[in-house]
Amino acid sequence: MACSVPPVVASKLTAPMASSVSASGSRIVQAIPKGFHRLRRSFTARPAPMGSAPRSIPRSVVVKASAETVDNLYENSVDIGHLTYLPLVGNKAPDFEAEAVFDQEFINVKLSDYIGKKYVILFFYPLDFTFVCPTEIIAFSDRYSEFEKINTEVIGVSVDSVFSHLAWVQTDRKSGGLGDLKYPLVSDISKSISKSFGVLIPDQGIALRGLFIIDKEGVIQHATINNLAIGRSVDETLRTLQALQYVQENPDEVCPAGWKPGEKSMKPDPKLSKEYFSAV
After folding, report:
1. Average of pLDDT values for 22-37?
2. What is the CATH number of domain 17-58+84-225?
3. Beta strand residue intervals within 44-197, DSSP E
């Protein structure tokens, strides 16, 4: 498998150790920093507040996707023969509240807290301490300021525990770790978030490389899903987000293929669109 877990994931960490069982059944040893019980805080402590008071959820309630939101999607689904297709794009994103790691601390993230405030890039990756995953996670972190400038938050999600996330963040990048990140990594240890967004591989218990762009109304406007061995492009994610924001600010226009800010858009009209086609 493209994202199988290396035999040793935290051999250089000197903190106390905990073990967990991977999707393949092998035992993974991970480091737990001393005093982790004091690390919990709310994501509202970020410079851009989420608009909610700090809250704490019991460790036994790690992740819970909104059943009501999923039920609403089923009501809007299309029956295709014996299959039911849920068109996530154009519908409200399934809400969730979960523990995450940010700034080497445990925090709470609730997706609906961003409604009315920010766009969200929500991306799923298969597992911590793998190979393609850190290249994507680091790439989004290194360019976080570009998303921040256009009022967008980035959130990463995997089925790993917050302890695994924390150990990976505390591992040096030259050793396959992440180092400090500028956005949170959510723990979907119950797999309910991955399932509600349609990216869970049931027999492996991990998520495909799904990426969703959610607007300020909480509606999914873009979705891509890659198989395990294929990394994603920060450039294309940013370009698509900019195109989305442009058409929402200019509802009488649409963006043609490859559109970038500053380039000519198009009028969605048989006659008016000729102005664009005559110029290309």
Report:
1. 42
2. 3.40.30.10
3. 63-65, 78-80, 83-85, 96-102, 105-110, 119-124, 152-158, 185-187
